[in-house]
Design brief:
This protein is α/β, with parallel strands linked by helices and about 170 residues long. About 45% of the residues lie in helices and about 15% in strands. Bound molecules: 5-O-phosphono-beta-D-ribofuranose.
Length: about 170
């Protein structure tokens, strides 16, 4: 997108630095569209005060979308969503004990009234969170919509190429 917007438009928040490997995928997606973002660690359980301040200050700091990734009893996305009207995209982090099913259910099963747009568990979900944030922002920034359309065309061409490649394999 145009360099005119320099402030972070997206806040990527994670419950622990151990979530970074997964959440870096969201950052890569945003990088591909040239969307400025910030990254922070804030835990719904270990640092509730910091998490509240992050959500409460998000609008005045210029954020327009929040991506939140957490694992286990993953309440981060929901807690942030409860304290801001910005759209919150949740990424369930694969957990070591239950493989991320716990994170998925904790993130997706929000009570009516406070939505969290929950992605798939893990890296695909984090990647899609970045794309979803771009799609939300594209309503306001037409240059992002152009890039999203180009990205879809590129994927289409890649699939064509892959299809041709496997047709050539001798049986
Ligand atoms: C959650 O607990 C974090 O989001 C992380 O996925 C999980 C484990 O955190 P660490 O013990 O690795 O810091 O709050």
């Amino acid at each position: 997108m145009k360099k005119a917007v320099k402030r972070a438009l997206v806040g990527i928040v994670m419950g622990s630095d151990s979530d970074l490997e997964v959440m870096a995928e969201a950052a890569s997606s945003l990088d591909a569209f040239g969307i400025p973002y910030e990254m922070a660690v804030a835990s719904a359980h270990r640092s509730p005060g910091r998490t509240r301040k992050y959500a409460e200050s998000a609008v005045t700091r210029g954020l327009e979308v929040i991506i939140a990734g957490a694992g286990g009893a993953a309440h981060l996305a929901g807690v942030l969503a409860s304290q801001t009207v910005l759209p919150v995209i949740g990424v369930p982090i694969p957990s070591s004990v239950l493989g991320g099913m716990d994170s998925l259910l904790s993130t997706v099963q929000m009570p009516g009234g406070i939505p969290v747009a929950t992605m798939a568990v893990g890296k695909a979900g984090a990647r899609n969170a970045g794309i979803m944030a771009a799609q939300i922002l594209s309503v306001k920034y037409p240059e992002i919509r152009d890039l999203l359309e180009k990205n879809r065309d590129r994927m289409e061409r890649e699939i064509e190429k892959k299809s041709k490649a496997i047709r050539k394999v001798k049986r």
